[in-house]
Write a structure and sequence with these properties.
It is built from one helix and four strands. The chain is mainly beta and 65 residues long. Strands 1, 2, 3 and 4 form a four-stranded antiparallel beta sheet that branches. It is globular.
Amino acid sequence: MTLYKLEKYYPDYRDENLASFDIKNFHVYAKDELIGTVTNILIDGNNGRFRYFVIDTGFWVFSIK
């Protein structure tokens, strides 16, 4: 299984259905508490499905991605 970053696998992703939203800036919550934002998405090269979300947690848990 080969993984690609979203913009490498599908460089025009912003021009399609989610034109008014950038999925890479969505907020991530756990138990109603903001834990970070999506900084990248890894795509499965075999079927084009989202496989992993890379989350920037900021200072929470010492800024782990």
